[in-house]
Amino acid sequence: MKLLLLMVLGAALTATTLAVSSRLSATATSPSAAQRESFLVLPPATRAGQTTQWGHIKSLKRKGSHFEMRFDPGLMLHGVTAERASLEDRGTSEITNDYYVREESHRLLTYVVPANAHVTVLVRTRKGVTQITVAELAQIVAGKNPKHRSLLEPKTGFWIRIGTKYPNPALALDQQYQP
Predict the structure, then answer these.
(1) Is 16 left (phi over 0), alpha (psi -120 to 50) or beta?
(2) CB 100 within 8 A of CB 91
(3) Would the CA dihedral through 94, 98, 102, 108 be positive or negative?
(4) Which of 3, 103, 129, 167 satisfies CB 3.0 to 4.6 Å to 74 for a cystine?
């Protein structure tokens, strides 16, 4: 099975990631096979002690000088791991686009998000991604679009990077492309 590569918008996007994601066309709803192959640019590893999680943001609300996020963690699996998990969960090892998402409990976790945290979302522009504020993301999560951005996939998951010091805040939230 041909490996279809995913754009990974990780915790700390590099300039290379931005350059690669800029190949998305303004009218495309999903990238071509050639574009998908160019998305094998992974974010740098987190610093010692920091963690990264993938999942869905269920709510994001202002609480004084910061925000509080309710997050539904999941596992985005690839390759043999994805095939075996799919076989266990669904009775078939066939997976689409070489990934399978396992979301077991849907029990929400709470994270503090500083008002100045790094946030990127997928948009239908030549650039493909744009950086926004946490306040704007909170409105998008609530079903609004205050700046009328042409969002590519408003419901897809996010990679979050979690800091090392109490209250272990979510320092970065980067939306993940999912074909």
Answers:
(1) alpha
(2) no
(3) negative
(4) 103
Q: What is the pLDDT of residues 54-102, one digit of tens each?
A: 999 999 999 999 999 999 999 989 999 999 999 999 999 999 888 899 9
Annotated domain spans of the chain? 15-74+108-175
Q: What is the mean pLDDT of residues 24-35?
A: 41
> Strands 109-114, 99-102: parallel, antiparallel or unpaired by DSSP?
unpaired
- Give the span between the Cα atoms of 171 and 67, in whole angstroms: 11
Residue 50's alpha-carbon distances to 2, 63, 115, 170, in angstroms, are 33, 23, 19, 10
Among 17-26, 28-37, 40-49, 100-109, the range of highest mean pLDDT = 100-109
Query: How far is residue 63 from each of residues 73, 81, 141, measured CA to CA in Å?
Result: 22, 39, 16
Whole-number Å distance between alpha carbons of 131 and 174? 9
CA distance 151 to 99: 22
Q: Which two tokens stand for residue 170?
A: 């979510």
